[in-house]
């Protein structure tokens, strides 16, 4: 990670500079270097898509930005505050939806969202009021009294998103928010996120569905093998082609299918 | 189809010996051991040929016990033999009846069925008084064996469909635990009736012989004794039972194959609506929220329920030496033991939630709120249980003069336990059964760390409470001054150690919460 350009840390108060700034961020798991010292700026008010193949380091990067995984190198800033030296202040600004982590799933949906609000220090009245509103907005009213352990994958995503929104964060970091979500729920989530961005918030999401990222994001970063291959405004990154073509181009690898001729059943 | 299934089982049986050499040798030794045991039992059963009266008592009881065993074992080991899980055959187009017969036949090839068959041979020998009784014995023992195995398949299939819903799993886990808790007292009660065991057995055998469990096992005895009519009635009843059980098994099988796991989400229990439960009743602060959440978990997660049930039950064991022998002092330890268990049992509390801890981390709650909130339910429980057990223990032992020392020792152990647990659950979480798994399943490969961590927690608690333990021991030895000193020091030291330990745990949590999360994800 020595060859990383040493960019200056973002300066100024929380009203200027990027919403999220990552400088030389790196993480090693044993022999595997999952994130190889990356720099990334997420502009304030952007809808930022992080795309990359499986194992590219998306989740690792987002975990280090949200305070869930301590980096081995580098720094991460949220609205100008260092995530790892000023965790209390940054965590107040962040709403987080991690991927592949369990929930307190023996609570009901409504209880879980209220619990998240109370942990954030909201008063009980405010927490339960917001929880009820979020449940209604996300179409979970029917299921609000059921235990989260009995939810479908899509409902689980929605209740996690609600828990990330309950304290009115300034920046949302969502790891695979649309995975296993049905089209109708996805549209609901998209509307909520768009509204959040319009009102001045910033959203960072990871996905490997290029279509979706192309449709809703204003900015993208392509990461692969722990490195940022391209980043910037969506139109700049894709350079007149579809994001998928550009992505395959950047990441490399072949989409040709070899063999499997027996799968073609036209012979009978 | 039947032949296929039997061949599959034979292959699996052979594969027992195909693993590593050590495992194969272990398997051979195990099988030899059980072969000797089973043959011995079969010979004992056969020897009842000498006394028809004794045989008519023992064999129906033994046979009924056999059927009960075959029924109960799948409650604990369900799913352990996936080759016999009907759901696995859902994607193959096999006619139901053939599958039902085939799976029973395949079960007959397993080691337990072979052992039962050997025992059945002993039973047939015991009944071989006349040609008629031998013939009836062959038929009815065969029916009895098939009934046992088919019942076991039926129960196992029902379990498999029950455990595909969360509530079903929870109910089964708690029932299983209760069964285990009840077995001990039942055995001791039966053992105490020892003087009249003979009369009891005769009476029981007479009842059992007319119950579905005993029909098949009693019929040959009737024929041998000359009551051919009664014997044939029992034989017919036994055959009818087998048909009924097979029908039930076939029905469950049909449901499983036609509709595999289709009902897994439909019966998840009543909706609680917009009731916030305890979250609405405890203070609306991060600390109160954590406490309310842990209390809610105690009610809803069978893994917590098991330790909740065990903690008050275990100290009752101290009453056994008091009542059965002349050991006068054991009840005095009831209070301290329950206090020790309440503090100690929290030492791996975080691991039970697995990586759901991320919500605490991203919320940025302080270590103080996390640590203290988690302990609130345990403290509430202790506030009820410890005084009750201290008083009951003292009253039973009749040593009221030792009350301050017992109370001090209890508070001392409680504080030390909370201190050790607050630190250890941050520093050394170790794997526990996943929520929804059978609480009796140990995660593979975790035995070493589990034993090490539990011993460390026990040792740590005892070391931290050692001044109080020493003083309490002196008090028990007869030093009057030590009684009050132990009480005073115990309470003071317990509070100081507890608060300090929770504080250290909180600072550790603040420093290493992300590392704790990584450890939990590995665990």
CATH superfamily of chain A: P-loop containing nucleotide triphosphate hydrolases
Structural class of chain B: mainly alpha
Shape of chain A: globular
In angstroms, what separates the terminal alpha carbons of chain B?
A: 42 Å
What percentage of amino acids of chain A are in beta strands? 15-25%
Report on this structure:
The complex is a heterodimer of chains A (268) and B (523). In chain A, 34% of the residues lie in helices and 23% in strands. With 268 residues, chain A is α/β, with parallel strands linked by helices. Chain A has a single domain (20-249), classed as P-loop containing nucleotide triphosphate hydrolases (Rossmann fold). In chain A, α3 packs across α4 and α3 (109-119) packs parallel to α5. In chain A, β9 and β10 form a beta hairpin. Mean pLDDT of chain A is 88; it is low at 1-5. By secondary structure, chain B is an all-alpha fold. Chain B folds into two domains: 2-258, no CATH class; 284-522, no CATH class. Chain B is globular, with a radius of gyration of 29 Å. The two termini of chain B are 42 Å apart. Residues 262-268 of chain B have low confidence and may be disordered. Classes of the chains: A alpha/beta (268), B mainly alpha (523). The interface between A and B is large, with 45 and 45 residues.
Give the key terms.
heterodimer, A: 268 residues, alpha/beta, Rossmann fold, six-stranded mixed sheet, four-stranded antiparallel sheet, 9 helices, globular, disordered N terminus, B: 523 residues, mainly alpha, 2 domains
């Amino acid at each position: 990670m020595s060859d990383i350009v040493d960019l200056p840390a973002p300066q100024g108060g929380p009203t200027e500079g990027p919403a999220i700034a990552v400088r030389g961020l790196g993480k090693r798991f044993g022999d595997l270097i999952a994130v190889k010292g990356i720099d990334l700026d997420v502009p304030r008010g952007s809808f930022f898509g992080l795309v990359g193949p499986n194992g590219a380091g998306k989740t690792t990067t987002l975990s280090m930005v949200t305070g869930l995984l301590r980096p081995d190198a580098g720094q991460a800033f949220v609205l100008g505050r260092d995530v790892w030296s000023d965790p209390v202040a940054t965590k107040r600004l962040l709403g987080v939806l991690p991927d592949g982590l369990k929930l307190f799933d023996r609570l009901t949906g409504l209880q879980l969202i209220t619990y998240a609000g109370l942990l954030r220090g909201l008063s009980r009245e405010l927490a339960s009021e917001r929880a009820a509103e979020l449940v209604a907005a996300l179409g979970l009213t029917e299921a609000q009294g059921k235990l989260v352990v009995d939810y479908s994958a899509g409902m689980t995503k929605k209740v996690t998103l609600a828990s990330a929104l309950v304290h009115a964060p300034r920046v949302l970091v969502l790891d695979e928010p649309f995975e296993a979500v049905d089209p109708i729920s996805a549209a609901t989530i998209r509307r909520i996120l768009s509204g959040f961005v319009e009102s001045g918030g910033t959203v960072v999401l990871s996905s490997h569905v290029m279509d979706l990222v192309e449709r809703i994001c204003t900015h993208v970063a392509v990461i692969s093998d722990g490195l940022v291959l391209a980043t910037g405004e969506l139109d700049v990154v894709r350079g007149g082609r579809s994001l998928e073509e550009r992505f395959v181009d950047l990441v490399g690898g072949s989409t040709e299918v070899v063999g499997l001729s027996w799968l073609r059943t036209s012979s009978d | 189809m039947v032949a296929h299934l039997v061949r599959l089982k034979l292959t699996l049986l052979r594969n027992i010996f195909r693993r590593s050499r050590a495992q194969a040798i272990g398997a051979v030794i195990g099988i030899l051991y059980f072969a000797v045991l089973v043959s011995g039992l079969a010979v004992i059963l056969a020897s009842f040929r000498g006394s028809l009266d004794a045989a008519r008592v023992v064999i129906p009881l033994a046979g009924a016990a056999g059927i009960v065993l075959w029924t109960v074992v799948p409650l604990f080991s369900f799913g352990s033999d996936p080759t016999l899980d009907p759901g696995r055959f859902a994607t193959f187009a096999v006619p139901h009846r053939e599958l039902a017969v085939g799976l029973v036949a395949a079960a007959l090839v397993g080691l337990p069925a072979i052992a039962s068959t050997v025992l059945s041979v002993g039973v047939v020998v015991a009944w071989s008084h006349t040609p008629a009784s031998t013939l009836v014995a062959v038929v009815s023992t065969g029916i009895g064996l098939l009934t046992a195995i088919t019942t076991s398949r039926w129960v196992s299939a029902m379990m498999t469909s029950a455990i595909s819903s969360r509530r079903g799993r929870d109910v089964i886990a708690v029932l299983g635990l209760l069964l285990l808790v009840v077995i001990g007292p039942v055995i001791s009660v039966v053992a105490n009736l020892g003087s009249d065991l003979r009369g009891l057995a005769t009476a029981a055998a007479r009842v059992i012989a007319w119950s579905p469990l005993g029909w098949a096992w009693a019929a040959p005895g009737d024929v041998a004794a000359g009551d051919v009519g009664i014997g044939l009635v029992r034989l017919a009843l036994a055959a009818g039972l087998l048909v009924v059980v097979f029908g039930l098994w076939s029905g469950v099988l049909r449901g499983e194959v036609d509709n595999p796991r289709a009902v897994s989400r439909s019966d998840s229990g009543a909706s609680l609506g917009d009731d916030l439960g305890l979250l609405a009743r405890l203070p609306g602060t991060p600390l109160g929220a954590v406490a309310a959440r842990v209390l809610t978990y105690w009610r809803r997660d069978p893994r917590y329920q098991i330790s909740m049930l065990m903690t008050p039950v275990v100290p009752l064991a101290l009453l056994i030496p008091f009542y059965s022998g002349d050991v006068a002092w054991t009840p005095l330890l009831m209070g301290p033991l329950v206090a020790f268990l309440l503090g100690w049992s929290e030492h791996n509390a975080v691991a039970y939630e697995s990586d759901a801890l991320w919500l605490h981390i991203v919320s940025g709650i302080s270590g103080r709120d996390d640590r203290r909130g988690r302990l609130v339910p345990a403290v509430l429980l202790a506030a009820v249980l410890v005084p009750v057990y201290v008083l009951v223990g003292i009253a039973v032992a009749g040593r009221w003069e030792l009350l301050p020392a017992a109370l001090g020792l209890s508070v001392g152990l409680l504080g030390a336990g909370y201190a050790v647990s607050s630190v250890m659950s941050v520093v050394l979480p170790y794997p526990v059964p996943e929520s929804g798994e059978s609480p009796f399943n140990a995660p593979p490969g975790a035995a070493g760390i589990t034993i090490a961590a539990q011993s460390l927690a026990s040792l740590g608690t005892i070391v931290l409470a050692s001044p109080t333990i020493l003083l309490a021991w002196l008090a028990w030895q007869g030093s009057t001054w030590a009684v009050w000193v132990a009480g005073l020091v115990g309470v003071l030291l317990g509070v100081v150690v507890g608060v300090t330990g929770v504080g250290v745990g909180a600072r550790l949590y603040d420093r290493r919460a992300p590392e704790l999360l990584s450890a939990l994800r590995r665990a």
